[in-house]
Amino acid sequence: MARQQSKAQKDTVHRVMHEFKEGKLKIRGSGPKVKNPKQAIAIALREAGASNQESPKKNRENLSKTKAKEHRGETASKKSASKKTASPRERLGGKASKAGRAQTRAELYAEAKRRDLPGRSRMSKGELERSLDR
Predict the structure, then answer these.
(1) Do residues 91 and 72 touch, judged by C-beta distance below 8 A?
(2) What is the mean pLDDT of the chain?
(3) Predicted structure pTM score
(4) Which of 2, 80, 120, 129 is 20 to 30 A from 49 (CA-CA)?
(5) Beta bridge partners of 13
(6) What is the DSSP string of 58-76?
(7) What pLDDT, on a 0 to 100 scale, did the predictor assign at position 109?
């Protein structure tokens, strides 16, 4: 029979399982990535203080340690969110710069679609460039 979990425990389990699905959950924080879903569940329950393998006192300690770690931003999801920088395409807003960056075929196709060019789906990248330059 499963025990009732508090809101804090549910949030912690949700965060840990999300890290597992994103491939960021590691064994003991710095070890190899967790690949087994059952192992991820065990880690989530332990961090949430809802493990049936620990005493109630130890569960409370685990939950308070985890909440302190989350508050400090030391979880995998918090670390990756702070490290993320915009890619060159994101910085340019998805548009080609006037400085001469070559457009991809997908970008050329989107422009051809916007201009409603006939036969655009069968055109190569070069053909799209030539037809858009006219």
Answers:
(1) no
(2) 80
(3) 0.48
(4) 80
(5) none
(6) HHHHHHHHHHHHHHHT-SH
(7) 93
Alpha carbon separation from 61 to 48, 51, 54, 80 (Å, rounded):
10, 12, 10, 26
Q: 104 is written with which tokens?
A: 């991809």
pLDDT over 90 at 122, yes or no:
yes
Q: In this structure, are residues 24 and 16 in contact, taking their beta carbons and an 8 Å threshold? A: no
- Listed in sequence order, the residues at least 6 apart from 20 whose beta carbon sits closer than 8 Å to its beta carbon are 34, 37, 40, 44
Residue 27 and residue 42: Cα distance in Å, rounded?
Answer: 11
Other beta carbons within 10 angstroms of residue 84's beta carbon come to 8
Q: Which residues contact 15 (CB under 8 A, 6 or more apart)?
A: 70, 75, 77
